[in-house]
Amino acid sequence: MVKTIYWENNVVMMLDQSRLPLEVVYVECRNYQTVAEGIKKLWIRGAPAIGIAAAMGIALGAQEIQAQNFDEFVEGLQPVFETIHATRPTAVNIHWAIERIKRFLADHKDERVDTLKRMLIEEGTRILEEDIAVNRKIGEYGAQFIRDGDTILTHCNAGSLATGGFGTATAAMYVAHEQGKRIQVFADETRPVNQGARLTSWELMQAGIPVTLITDNSAGAIMKRGLIDLAIVGTDRTTRNGDVANKIGTYTVAVMCREHGIPFYVAAPLSSIDFTLDSGDKIIIEERHPDEVRTIWGHQIAPHGVNVLNLAFDVTPSRYVTAFFTEKGAFRPRDLRRLGQEGVDIDAIRYVGAC
User: Fold this and answer.
1) pTM across the whole model
2) Domains of the chain (ranges, CATH numbers)
3) According to the model, what pLDDT value does residue 195 have?
């Protein structure tokens, strides 16, 4: 699989996904400002991937700080934290990565500053490696819900390009394919940035999984024809009651699945679950530049100056979610909040209604 992001010789190498599938180009990020720009401009996207980018961006910023002691070092990191945090408000993984780095620093406050700089690089790489392992586990649990011969609908891109590797929603597909199950996937285009058309279809073709690209507004009609057996999507932030913030259009897919009696699954690494929020009503929804809708690849497709509302995400209420695939197992929405509690018997709440 193509690497989404990695650290090499004090440079963060970031795949510029805005140029896929026509070009495979890596951007050399030599400072945290470039990493922040990459997150904001969607060179890198997908909740797990931008969490990794946030951690590596902080590590880059740390290398520039001239400090004599721990307190000066942490004070110097504050602008780095703030810049990274402000890039994309909806995805929880940026906040998760920053908080993890802060806890890591607090646990190692007795180390020398130069040692801390090196350790932050190691921590960023560790987060990347952990993400790949987490995604593999999500795939193993999710594949249990895929039968031989199933056709799967997915929305946006929750593949290896949205993560450190292997993907979240696509992880179940990859594992099922490895198991010899004959599956095929319908990927909708996911306007206005076309992540499904540009990224998901490309990834699945690379993996040898049959994929059919459809327009966003044809999903309901295809379900009505009986062509879809299940839907699997990713998540940028899930609240503890099971409400799901994901790419705009996810809510529509979920409603259509309910109407047609089709299971709707969400692949959610625990890092994407925000246990501090009790419902999706409290999630800040990012609005992006109008030109993403007015133009395609720089070509004007709408009247100049037309008003545009470009919501990047929507929130799907938990009642539409059949189950969540996590690295700890599959769970019903009503049991999700218990994953954030200490001492919970995971086996007692794991959803085992697989095929």
Assistant:
1) 0.88
2) 5-134 (1.20.120.420), 145-349 (3.40.50.10470)
3) 95
